[in-house]
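re: ur question from the group chat, yeah i did fold both. here u go
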Amino acid sequence: MKVFQFLSLSLFFLFAICQSCDLSKYTPLECYVRTGVFISNYSYHLWDLSSTDKGDLQTLFDWGVCPSTQSMRGNRYDGIVNYVDFGTLGKDVFELLTGQTPDIFTDELFSQGLNFQKRFYPQNDAHNRSGTNYWPMKHSEDYPMKIYISPAVQNSSYYSLKIDYDVYGNNAIEVAPLLDEIRQIPNTNLFVGKMYFRVLDEPIFILWFSLEKRN
C-alpha cells in the first residue's frame, strides 16, 4: 500500500513538472490560457480564457495593462463569467445580473447565464453614463455604468479601468454598489476583470470575468 502511495505521489509530481511553464520562454498568456498546447503566433480569443484557473486569472490581471477610457468608447465587448464566489452575496449578485438562480441551472441556462456583453457609448450621455450591459437571459440592456481610471482595488501599485454602477437609473441598494475593474492582456483584444460589491464603501470580491473587443 505504501509503495502504491509513493508511486502515485511520484507520478503526480512528475506530471506537475511536465505541465509547468517556463516564463522565461513564454508569456503569462501562453502559460496560463488553457489552449492545450503552446502555439507560436497563436491569436487568442475569448473562449481561450474560459478554462483558465482562477489563480492564473490574477497573474494575467497583474501582467495586464490599464486601457484608456477613450479606447473603450463606442465599442462592444463580448464577455464570459470565469468564476463566481457563490457565497451568499455572490449568489445574490449573480441572480440579480442574470435573473436566474444558479442552483436550478440546466446546462443550457448555465451557458446563457455565463455570457454577456458590455456596450460603451461614443461619449457619456446626459447623466454621465458611459455605457450599459446586455445579458442574454434577460433579453434586454440593463445596468448602465460610468468608466474612469484609478488604482487597482487590491493592488494600488498599478491602475485599472473602473466600470462603476453608481449612476442615474440604477437601484441604489442592489446595483449602485457594484464595481468592475479591468486590465487588458498586452497585444490582444482581451481583458481580465473583477466585479465587487461595495459594503460601506469596502469592495467585496464577487466574480472574475473576461472580455473581448468585437471587431
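okk and heres the other one u asked abt
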Amino acid sequence: MVVHVDQLSFFDISFTLYKMAHQYKKSYPFYYQEVFFDTVANQCIEMKANLRNSMYVMRQLARLRHFHKNLLDYVSKLVYDDPHQPCHPIDCFSLVIALALTDYKPVHWDAIRDWIRNARDLGLENKKEILWIRFAASLCVLGIYKADVLSRTLSSSYVEHLLSKGFMSDFENYFTIWKMLNIYNPDLADLLPSNLEPKLLVDRINLVKDYPLEAPLEKCLGGPEFLLTKLYSKLGDIIDHAMVFDRNGCPVNLNPVTFIEDIDLHNDNQLVLILDLHESHYTINDKRLRLSVIKSIEILESTVPNCNVIPISNDSWNELEEFERLPYLTQKIKEKLDLDISVSHQIV
C-alpha cells in the first residue's frame, strides 16, 4: 500500500490510517507502522490537501504520539496564507494536540498561535472526538489560554468524574493545567476547582511500576539512606527518586517524606530528582521528549529551591549493558551538578 499510496484516494488513505491508529494498543503494536504514517503525512503535503483533511491526518498521528515536522510546517503555511479562515473546534483540537507533542515550533508559529487565540466558541462544541482535558492541557503548555475551553474542562463535577476512572493520562493532563495556570497565568487560576488540588489527589493514582534505577543509585551513593524513592511534588509530579548533595559534593542522609518540597535542604545543598521516563513520555517515532514533560521539568527547577531534574529514558536504560549502568548514572549526576573530581569519588 505504501508503494502505491499516490494511486489511492484521500478517503482510502485516511480511513486506513484511522483504523490503524484506533486499533493500536501495547498488546497490538503491529498496528503502528512508522513508514506508513510518515507516507500518509507526506502524501498529504504532496497532494496539497486542504486544511480540514490535513488536520484529520494530524489528529490520527497525534493519537499515537507520532510527530511529523513537515506536516506541521505545511499546515502552518495554510493558516499563514489564509488567517481568516474559520478555526473549527475539531480542527483546532487536532492542531493543538499535534503541536503539543514536542517543543518544535513550525515555521509560521506566530500565525498559528494567533489563529488559535482568535478562535471563538470552542467550548460549545460537542464532538466526541475532542478530549477536553487533553485539549485544555495542550493549549496551556503552548502558552495559549482559552477561557471557554478551561471553563468547560475544569468544572468540579467533570474533573471528579474523569479522575474517578483512574486513567493516568487524565491525572497528568489535569495536573499540567493546574501547574500552568498557577505558575504562568494566575489570573485564570480561579477556574481551578479548589477541592481538587494535586497534592490531595496523588493518593488516588494507581501507580504500578518497578524502580530499576533504585539499586544502582543506592550503590552510586553509598547506601539506601541517601536515596528516597516514589515521591511526588505538591503540583502532582511523580518523582521516582530524590537525593541531596552538600556543598562538598557528598550525599546527604535523608528522612522519608511524601513530597519533595518537604525535603530539608540546608544552605547550598543541591536537590537532585531522577525521573524514570517510559515510552508514553516521548513521541513514538523519533523519541522526542513531550512538551508537557519539558514544561514540568522547567517548573520543578524554577519553583523548588536548588532543584536539579535528570530525566532518564527507560528504553535507553534497558539498552545499556550491566557494566555501563553505574558510570551512566554517575556521569548524568556529574553533568547536572557540574561536580569536580573530589565529588565524583563520592558517587562512584
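fwiw on the second one: The chain has a mean pLDDT of 92. The radius of gyration is 22 Å. idk if thats what u expected
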